[in-house]
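Q: Predict the bound structure with iron/sulfur cluster.
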Amino acid sequence: MIPSVGRECKWYPVCPMKYFYEAGKLDVHWIKEYCHGNWAACVRYRMEERGEPHPDNMLPDGTIDKRLS
Ligand code: SF4
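A: Predicted complex:
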């Protein structure tokens, strides 16, 4: 499948970033830029595709945000 920018990421319904955003802990720019934008560039997405474990508090750019829990 060719990644299509603009559609929602297929992981969004189950992604911790959705949970953190809805809990008011994550700025909307992450959701706009990645989950509803260029999700193919998301580090979480890429690791998920490779079956590689990654912590729930890892942001789409690969940064760990220790405030998220
Ligand atoms: S954080 Fe990444 S994997 Fe999670 S929904 Fe957004 S784009 Fe998809």
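A: The chain has one domain: 8-69.
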